[in-house]
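Local shape tokens:
==================
===
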Amino acid sequence: METGTANYPMTAKTQYGLEDLLADELKRLGASAIVKHNRAVSFEGDKGFMYKANLCLRTALRILKPIKTFNIVNEEGLYREIGKINWEDYMGVDDTLAIDCSLNSDFFTHSQFLAQKAKDAVVDQFRNRHGKRPSVDLDQPTLRINLHIFKNACTVSLDSSGESLHKRGYRTQTNLAPINEVLAAGLILLSGWDKRSPLIDPMCGSGTILIEAAMIANNIPSGYFRKRFGFESWKDFEPALWDTIFNAAIDKISEENQQITGVEIIPEIAEMAKANVLGSKVEDTVKIVCSSFHDFEPWEHITKTTGKPIVIMNPPYGERLEPENIKELYKSIGDTLKKKYAGCDAWVITSNVEAMKSLGIHATRKISLYNGPLECKFLKFSMYEGTRKVHKLKKETPNEENAAGEERIEETP
């Protein structure tokens, strides 16, 4: 494995629509040779940067270190090429492994079968040399190997993250359909929140959006609460270097007392959110209110006037509601935003195209994203003080004209 401070290529995996954010994060951290791909960003850095990327990137799911690329057209070719890699450079016979495979090829159809074939090649190499073989551990292996097959090209990478980086480690309790932490951070960054203005999630569930916002505002590394990263089991792991990287990131944590408020109607889930806030150590920044979205009075909880308040909400998409009920819910959301949130920028993510029409307000921006397997729109609504018609007639400044003209924007990163 690599030693010293030499740079080498890596790939950060992400969700669709977050590639630009991830590239910006990598640039700010100090990566070089940054190139955006579909659901991924490639870059270069040294071992210390790999540690830092895992610890600090908010919109990355995994950090992969490619070790070999080759062409194959059948399973036997995969077995042969995997067997050519000297796996003792990366693990021992008493270690454990797991292999993941992603596939986009006309030559192959079953990713799990290919992962099994690659696993056979690795363990057979050890058995032939030592008379025994490593075991498989799908949860916390010593070495997690990633195969990416595109057409006939196979890239073999070491997964430096271990578990997906969206598993931050702070969330001990969840509601039925919690939002992914990486997506939550992406929503906050896409909203353009300035880290100082009030932020409200009026349907906060177990509090993920709120906690991610607090961590962003206070420079708390996204991986601060994780117990383990994959690279900590690698043969070339340098504990002293990792301690240096970790402590440098911790030194940058601030203690700004931001105004971040979550609203949750179900008492038991509100208590979950409070527990998660305590677990993430942001209780001085985040407040949870047990109330319905429609009864909550936002301006009674907004005491700062630093900037325009931001609302980010992830309402139900309707999988467990009748069509008429979900339309009525979205109509009531639109009515409440118009009635109580004048002067705010409101962002709503949903996969339900028909229901979003019932909001009754025009989006000034639309961004395509995925929440798990569901294709979603992340919609911005500028809740003007007074009617939109009056606002459009004002046209006092070029900025106001631009804001009105944004309505047709469709972003699909």
User: Anything to note?
Assistant: Residues 393-413 have pLDDT under 50 and may be disordered.
